[in-house]
Amino acid sequence: MKLRATTANRSRIRDRDRPATPRSGTGTGAGDLRLVLRRSSATRGRLVGAGLDLPCAIGRSGLTSAKREGDGATPRGRLAILGGVYRADRLRRPRCALELRPLRRDDGWCDAPGDANYNRPVRLPYRPSHEAMWRDDGLYDVVLVLGWNIRPRAQGRGSAIFFHLARPDHAPTAGCIALTKPDMLRLLPRLRPGAAIIV
């Protein structure tokens, strides 16, 4: 997936923002990972697949089949791993068959329902509500876009659902799925185009 940002005065991505269940299907492919919740926690689980079994963090509100913007939950479904970005000033390009490009300081992601670029990458500065991708805390040193509410895109059904780095204590996310940096770097070389996380 090409992660090209737009600005307010550039041509905007046009699609039919019709109501839909914005998931990528429920089938399981050979290279998919399965997210399994820990019985003792609603916000921690394990990613199993590609010959690995890795602890992960999920949204602070657990899992949901009715994702809404800002609810803090990780959506259920088959979330394709579409490619992403990495901090070239902090690490070398990870070994990975997926598309990865260096993160730029002006990369952002729109999370404003009703905006034409909702759940799309944007170039900062950007007036509507957005998330800055260049972070000081290291969580986006590697960040992959998950295929939630991408095409078709439904306004208010959730944005910026990423697969990124976790805090050392696996603290809950805002709805994303997260691995520690060492575990992410172990996993990336094993991912193949078309891989997904089954939630």
Automatic annotation (TrEMBL):
Pathway annotation from the record: Cell wall biogenesis; peptidoglycan biosynthesis
Domain of life: Bacteria
PROSITE patterns: LD_TPASE (PS52029)
Keywords (A to Z) from UniProt: Cell shape, Cell wall biogenesis/degradation, Peptidoglycan synthesis, Transferase
Domain (L,D-TPase catalytic): residue spans on this chain: 24-199
Name of the protein described by the UniProt record: L,D-transpeptidase family protein
Family, as annotated: Belongs to the YkuD family.
GO molecular function: carboxypeptidase activity; transferase activity
Positions of the UniProt region annotated as Disordered: 1-33
InterPro entries hit by this protein: LD_TPept_cat_dom (IPR005490), Transpep_catalytic_dom (IPR038063)
SUPFAM superfamilies, per the entry: L,D-transpeptidase catalytic domain-like (SSF141523)
Organism: Methylobrevis albus
Pfam families: YkuD
Active-site residue numbers: 164, 176
Biased composition (Polar residues): 1-10
GO term, biological process aspect, one: regulation of cell shape
